Amino acid sequence: MSLGVNGAETVALGAAAWMTGSVGLRAQTAANAADLAVVAFLLIGVLSSARPADQDHPLGYGRERFFWSLFAALGIFVGGGGLSLEGAVDSGLHPSPVEHYAIAYFVLATTVALDTFALLVALKPVRQEAASRGISLRAQAQGSTDPAAMTVVVGGACAVVGAIAAAAGLVASQLTGSVAPDTAASAFIGVVLLVASIILLRANRALLLGRGVPISVLREMHRVVAAQPGIIAVPDLFAVVVGASSLIVDGDVTFADELTVPDVEQAIMRAAEALRARWPSVDYVYLTPVPKARSRRAARATRALVHGSRPAAPVQQVGVPSMTDSHDDPTHGEHTA
């Protein structure tokens, strides 16, 4: 449905831009055209990331969503911001009169109404998640591990802001008889899209590189594991994002000397269950029994050897080394990052 609405808006804006000669409308047309590519990339990412884990990808395909969301951000950067700024420069060098203002106002009013409704729908689950975690909407957006959802929200906000800016430019041009305000509106739309794309590119880059969780969340995870009976120390623990709302937790754990092997296995299972109960996004837990603290480099090297010869185990299967990723907050996933 989103593709159909964006497609209809793009055609309407393009026709209005051609009839009126407004460079601001041309900029908004370019932005909507870029949104079509964005929606297509996000759809591919969501579908491809839903594939189950296999031998080649034991942790699943969650990062596929990050990859395709990166392309979506590039689409906003090039298709929206680049073309909008190019149109503003061309209009500044070769200004042309703007005509048929009524048509432009009608099309822009319609697109603002549609885009505002779409933005409110996209924001609803984000607001609900932020409320459930007791954090602000801004903190939720910054920590989100679902780039598709955030790209839709950012793109929708840019569409609304861009349409309002284009309308303001047209009003100013009509009142002053100058095309300069319309040209300035096009430049403004381009800058907004460039800034939005850079924010999205940085977020997706961090997720593709294996972003960890906030230190406050990691400390809370450490406390949860250390609180389990039989565990006397947690020398090393870390968490990494492996997909949208999906974390893997990995660490070293020291157990009491009197514990038997079955006791150790039960302690690891309790720790995994406690982590998942607190942070449902924790899909994989790997806790390695060690007699004493070891350097992080040595620990990571050992885990790399183990993971290279053995597929990752879901949180319910414990007792093997694991890598962790968590993005939730102490309340329920502050990670989202």
Description:
This protein is mainly alpha-helical and 337 residues long. It has helices spanning 2-20, 23-49, 64-93, 101-133, 137-143, 147-176, 180-208, 215-226, 261-278, 296-309; strands at 231-243, 246-255, 282-289. It has two domains: 2-208, Alpha-lytic protease prodomain-like, CATH 1.20.1510; 215-309, Alpha-Beta Plaits (2-Layer Sandwich), CATH 3.30.70. The chain has a three-stranded mixed sheet. The longest helix is centred in the middle third of the chain and has 33 residues, at 101-133. The radius of gyration is 25 Å and the shape is elongated. The model is unreliable at 305-337 (pLDDT under 50).
Brief write-up:
The chain is mainly alpha-helical and 337 residues long. The chain has helices spanning 2-20, 23-49, 64-93, 101-133, 137-143, 147-176, 180-208, 215-226, 261-278, 296-309; strands at 231-243, 246-255, 282-289.
